[in-house]
Design brief:
This protein is α/β, with parallel strands linked by helices. The chain folds into 2 domains: about 10-265, Spore Coat Polysaccharide Biosynthesis Protein SpsA, Chain A; about 265-300, no CATH class. It has helices at about 40-50, 65-70, 75-85, 90-100, 115-120, 120-125, 145-155, 215-225, 235-245, 245-250, 265-280, 285-300; strands at about 10-15, 35, 40, 55-60, 100-105, 130-135, 135-140, 160-165, 175-180, 185-195, 205-215, 250-255, 260-265.
Length: about 300
């Protein structure tokens, strides 16, 4: 694929949400720090960005989110204790998070929606295209969605949105895209977007999931976007304006994702994500699968 546009190096991760669906666990602990097996959910997201070549990470945070900064910083006291014990394996795990990427942080302050969170990134991003990764969606590293999205953006320009086909009864939970086919089987052109439509009003069953590669023209549109559904500034509304007028920031394409995605934003899906990932771990999987089979077949 011919590259026509600059390589994307910056990623933005909105992490200012209150995590009310996981109370009381999130009363004092950021929801992004809830463990998925033995790593906080947010680390999977940062690792995904880094694996796609994005090593400059801006996290949009809020009150009571200091634990996020601490996790991606050095902990010299802990490291010294592990060195003294000769525990090289755990020392490596502790140091992994602080060595992943160049991390930056900015507070959203007034939580006015995803669109507002993205707008908070403008001073850091400037006039470069950039990626946005939502922490509730974990994408399996064996399915390199973000790298594919950056490839499309570098060849076609504009904006690229991750899409997933969902059952029509579920479209009201997502932003939904009107699409046209392209010459590539996994890529569509997006002609319109609707935030959480009723099933009867949905233009398709292509749902927007939490990965975006955005043209910097999005900032100007977000500044003029009025609060929409829920009284918040919706990123979907700004993307709709881009899709309706390609002269503003280029085309809007969608990459249709058919790989493995783990939703950690819902309690049930969070538990399922842990079970699925634990079952696939070489160090945990064999014993855990045996126990799980016994529990399901004999104890329930």
């Amino acid at each position: 694929m011919t590259q026509l546009h600059p390589v994307i190096k910056k990623a933005v991760i909105p992490a200012a949400g209150l995590g009310t669906r996981f109370l009381p666990a999130t009363k004092a602990t950021p929801k992004e720090m809830l463990p998925v097996v033995d790593k906080p959910a947010i680390q999977y997201v940062v690792e995904e960005a880094v694996s796609a070549g994005l090593d400059d990470i801006l996290m949009i945070t809020g009150r009571n989110k200091r634990a996020l900064e601490d996790h991606f910083d050095r902990n010299y006291e802990l490291e010294s204790a592990l060195i003294a014990k000769g525990d090289d394996d755990r020392l490596k795990k502790v140091q992994e998070s602080s060595d992943l990427a160049t991390m930056h942080y900015v507070r959203q302050g007034d939580p006015r929606g995803l669109g507002h969170a993205v707008l908070c990134a403008e001073p850091h991003v400037g006039d470069e295209p950039f990626a946005v990764l939502l922490g509730d969606d974990l994408i399996d590293p064996r399915d390199p969605l973000l790298r594919r999205m950056t490839e499309i953006q570098q060849s076609a320009g504009g904006t690229v949105v991750a899409l997933m086909e969902v059952d029509p009864s579920q479209v009201h939970l997502y932003g939904c895209a009107a699409v046209e086919p392209t010459d590539e089987a996994d890529v569509v052109r997006i002609t319109g977007l609707v935030e959480k439509p009723d099933a009867a009003d949905a233009p398709s069953n292509y749902a927007v999931i939490g990965r975006y590669v955005l043209d910097p023209a999005i900032f100007g549109i977000l500044r003029e976007t009025e609060p929409g559904r829920g009284g918040e500034i919706q990123l979907t509304d700004a993307l709709q304006k881009l899709a309706a007028d390609e002269t503003v920031g280029g085309p809007v394409h969608g990459v249709v994702f058919r790989g493995r995605r783990y939703d950690t934003g819902d309690r049930g899906d969070y538990l399922r994500a842990i079970v699925r990932l634990a079952c696939e771990r070489e160090d945990l999987g064999p014993e855990f699968r045996t126990w799980l089979h016994h529990y399901v077949t004999e104890e329930m």
